[in-house]
Design a protein that fits this description.
The strands form four sheets. This protein has a nine-stranded mixed beta sheet with strand order 11-10-18-17-16-12-15-14-13. It has a four-stranded antiparallel beta sheet with strand order 6-7-9-8. Helix 23 packs across helix 24. A hairpin with a 6-residue loop joins strand 8 and strand 9. It has 853 residues and is of the alpha+beta class. It folds into four domains: 162 residues, no CATH class; 227 residues, Threonyl-tRNA Synthetase, Chain A, domain 2, CATH 3.30.980; 275 residues, P-loop containing nucleotide triphosphate hydrolases (Rossmann fold, 3-Layer(aba) Sandwich); 90 residues, Winged helix-like DNA-binding domain superfamily/Winged helix DNA-binding domain (Arc Repressor Mutant, subunit A, Orthogonal Bundle). It is built from 25 helices and 18 strands.
């Protein structure tokens, strides 16, 4: 008997659930059917009104026509004439209203959800009718028509009789304001804020279009001037520009490139058999020669490189004539090889693709709009290569080597934006160290600030990096418009600059996973850091990446104040910076516990599972959201080490050791890379390092484990040590003006305000004092188990998540939240790794609280 009763009781909820599901399904089918019927009625009314003809027979118009021309026949003729005579042009709004209403029903929205919006729409329609009723009849389809119809005219006459036109318009404005608030569910303040943001974004869009137009016009003028110069040179050499033979077709039967007057893009057929050396016709030959340009595909970043091969070096520059400098008898000096076949190779800039425009109006409340590249200055035209100067320097280098008995061959010249690399292959028996020891002598011979000598990877040659006489400016815009930057999906991809051959160089902070930067004043360190930060801001929304910026110097990062990506205000106090690093350690531990609970190895897998709905939220707890990356930027590490050396070093070491998987990353910068600032503990956990120019050789050895940074040129010239390798990469940081950063920050601020977490900057003592003064925080009311959990922790002296789980039968997330609330109220201390949390209040704390209440 008991078993039968139990079965009946268990079966009854099932039957109730099935009935409720059936009713919901029937209601959904009914809404869907009504929605499609409403949409069809709206379309029919629209066709009826569009095909309205005043000459069709109707109730108000008796004609001799026996057949109506309306698309819906006599019914359409009578209906359209009735609606237009009654409400005039206002009748055309009715079909669209029905279509919109039907779409909402098909989407599953009930009429009760839309009654306020429908009421507001009807009020706006009423105001439009009144305004149209005040107009005179207008011509319409071989007749006249009252814009507001009979109904609109009567309303206008009635209102103006008692309120006059001014009062009528004032009433209609108030009516429209109320209707807009009902239809949009927004207050007037919110609508005004949205309009202001829309206006600001529209202004930024017009600025970007104006900048793009100026860039296009400048490029067109330069192209025209270039074509004129090429035509004059062709005329001088006796070549008809209109009879230039195109390149042979490819295997697919079409030419590789469109015909162009650019000598880099198309071979020119003339007389003679020699090849023209000049890329931009910088210098001339004595005889008419046949210019030929040969292209080769670059191996890095898929950039084109230009190789210009010439047989006229010796004839034009007479490199082999004249006496050579010697230090001994001429008979014992080896004769240098002629430099008549040195290829000059230079990487070409890829044609930048315009970034697509974005929609400002689609969603002003929730959707984050990533900035485009129009905020940054466009790159300047590439200056001409003075190939005569390059060959002269190559000859000078070879002569200087011969003076010291270093024989070899100058294989190629690689011009770059800042330095030119001369590829020198020494003969057999010449030691590499002997070449390196000649750095100062080569500087003296060339009159250069510095010459860096290094092995060229993948080649049997030595690279001699000589500063250019004229240095190119690398713009941030050309870095972010490159295909690699656009195609990469990483949110923490940073544009570091260009290599010595002009190839853009990027690094993903998520894989590094931390970066240590050094550089003296004027070396370009701040500009490089700004380029890294702006690279991330160009790619990530505030809910994807958060920043904690620590600036003890108070002037470097103040411009980023109040951007939506900040977790805290820009930290300038060293003690608050130490508290922020402690919080980062605590957040790292909490994230590891959360990932371990849900069996995920890193933050990206966890966020992907959250977005796909694979992680279930325990009942009664807030839904789990994707976790953002956290980037901690410290601009001057030395100031922090002097104030709180022990705490800062410990926090940085712990973060650097194990925070990669949970998405917390460090960017540390200092002007003084001494052993007391960059300690062994910090250095061993930061394999990725970037050094701009430093004051002395010892500083270079500390930051890079080798020499070279002391001989850099400054202004963004740096050496980068990638993770997992000991091979240094020389890069030149892009220039980013303060006005460009301000434009970007202004755009970001237009879209939202930061949500600061001020408890990050507070110490444990401050939080405990606040907790004692306030008793229990208002947050205690968020969870009914808080009071019981707090009393259990204070009475037992154990403040751990697992302890609350066992004693109270809670889930991990809820128990962890309760412990965090106790920490915020000053009852327990922060997490310190494997050690238990400290109880900050006495055992009779709640007795005093109860007595006070």
């Amino acid at each position: 008997m008991a078993e039968t009763l139990s079965a009946d009781l268990s079966e009854k909820p099932r039957r109730t659930t099935r009935k409720a599901a059936n009713r919901e399904e029937d209601a959904s089918l009914l809404r869907d059917s009504l929605g499609w019927i409403t949409i069809l009625i709206g379309i029919g009314l629209l066709l009826m009104l569009v095909s309205y003809d005043p000459s069709d027979p109707s109730y108000f118009n008796q004609t001799s026509k026996h057949r109506a021309e309306n698309l819906l026949g006599p019914v359409g003729a009578f209906g359209s004439d009735f609606m237009i005579q009654l409400v005039g042009f206002g009748s055309y709004l009715f079909p669209f209203f029905l279509i919109y209403l039907g779409i909402q029903l098909v989407r599953g929205r009930s009429l009760l959800y839309w009654y306020l919006r429908m009421t507001g729409g009807c009020m706006i329609w009423f105001a439009i009718l009144v305004v149209l009723g005040g107009f005179q009849p207008v011509p319409y389809k071989n007749g006249t028509l009252n814009p507001g119809g009979t109904f609109g005219i009567e309303l206008w006459v009635f209102l103006t009789r008692y309120l006059n036109p001014a009062g009528t318009y004032l009433l209609l404005v108030a009516l429209c304001g109320c209707a807009l608030m009902m239809a949009t569910q927004l207050s007037l303040a919110q609508m005004g804020h949205g309009i202001l943001r829309l206006g600001g974004m529209a202004g930024l869009w017009f600025q970007s279009q104006w900048a793009a137009l100026q860039t296009w016009w400048q490029g067109r003028a330069e192209q025209t001037m270039r074509e004129n110069i090429v035509r004059r040179e062709l005329d001088r050499m006796g070549i008809d520009p209109d009879h230039v033979e195109p390149e042979p077709p490819t295997k697919k039967g079409r030419s590789k490139r469109e015909p162009s007057l650019d000598p880099l893009d198309q071979p020119l057929v003339g007389v003679g058999s020699q090849e023209l050396i000049s890329r931009d016709l910088a210098f001339e030959t004595q005889e008419p020669v046949e210019p030929r340009v040969r292209r080769s595909r670059g191996t890095s970043m898929e950039l084109d490189s230009v190789e210009i091969v010439s047989d006229t070096f010796s004839a034009d520059l007479d490199l082999d004539s004249g006496p050579r400098p010697t230090t001994g008898p001429v008979e014992t000096q080896p004769k240098p090889k002629p430099l008549s076949h040195i290829p000059i190779q230079r990487a070409q800039k890829p044609a930048p693709k315009e970034q697509g425009t974005f929609d400002f109006v689609e969603d002003l409340q929730g959707q984050w709009v990533l900035p485009n590249t129009s905020f940054f200055n466009p790159p300047k035209p590439e200056h001409k290569i003075d190939e005569a100067e390059l060959v002269h320097k190559a000859q000078t280098l070879e002569n200087k080597f011969n003076e010291f008995g270093v024989t070899g061959e100058m294989k190629a010249i690689h011009p770059g934006p800042v330095v030119t690399t001369y590829e020198f292959r020494p003969d057999a028996g010449i030691k590499y160290s002997k070449v390196v020891n000649l750095q100062d002598d080569l500087c003296l011979a060339l009159g250069a600030e510095s010459v860096r000598i290094d092995r060229m990877p993948g080649r049997y040659s030595i690279g001699l990096e000589v500063p250019n006489t004229r240095r190119e400016i690398i713009t941030f815009r050309e870095m972010v418009e490159h295909g690699h930057f656009r195609d990469d999906s990483g949110k923490l991809l940073m544009a570091l600059g260009k290599t010595i051959d002009g190839t853009p160089y990027y690094c993903n902070l998520a894989s590094m996973p931390h970066l240590l930067i050094a550089g003296q004043t004027g070396s370009g360190k701040s500009v490089g850091i700004n380029a890294m930060i702006c690279s991330i801001l160009m790619r990530a929304a505030p809910d994807e990446v958060k920043f904690i910026m620590i600036d003890p110097k108070m002037v470097e990062m103040g411009m980023y104040a109040d951007i939506p990506h900040l977790l805290t205000p820009v930290v300038v106090d060293p003690q608050e910076a130490s508290n922020a690093l402690k919080w980062a350690v605590f957040e790292m531990e909490q994230r590891y516990k959360l990932l371990a609970t849900h069996s995920h190895r890193n933050l990206e897998l966890f966020n992907r599972a959250v977005k796909l709905g694979k992680i279930e939220t325990p009942e009664g707890e807030p839904p789990i959201q994707p976790l953002p990356f956290i980037v901690v930027v410290i601009d001057e590490l030395a100031d922090l080490m002097m104030v709180a050396r022990g705490e800062v070093e410990e926090s940085i070491a712990r973060i650097a050791q194990k925070s990669r998987a949970v998405g917390i990353h460090l960017i540390l910068a200092t002007q003084r890379p001494s052993v007391d600032i960059i300690t062994g503990v910090i250095k061993s956990n930061l394999p990725s390092r970037l050094s701009y120019r430093v004051a002395q050789r010892n500083d270079s050895r500390i930051i890079l484990d080798g020499n070279g940074a002391e001989k850099l040129l400054g202004k963004g010239d740096g050496l980068f040590l990638p993770p997992g390798t000991s091979r240094l990469v020389r890069i030149h940081a892009p220039f980013l003006a303060e006005s460009e950063i301000q434009d970007l920050i202004k755009f970001l601020k237009h879209q939202g305000k930061p949500q600061y977490q001020h408890q990050i900057l507070k110490s444990n003592e401050e939080m405990a004092a606040e907790g004692k003064a306030a008793g229990r925080s208002n947050k205690a009311n968020d969870d009914p188990m808080y009071d019981k959990a707090a009393r259990l922790v204070v009475s037992s002296g154990q403040a751990s998540v697992s302890y609350l789980q066992r004693k109270l039968g809670l889930g991990f997330a809820r128990a962890a939240k309760l412990v965090d609330m106790m920490e915020e109220d000053g009852i327990v201390g922060p997490n310190v790794g494997s050690k238990p949390r400290d109880i900050l209040v006495p055992g009779d704390y709640f007795d005093e609280v109860d007595a006070r209440l």
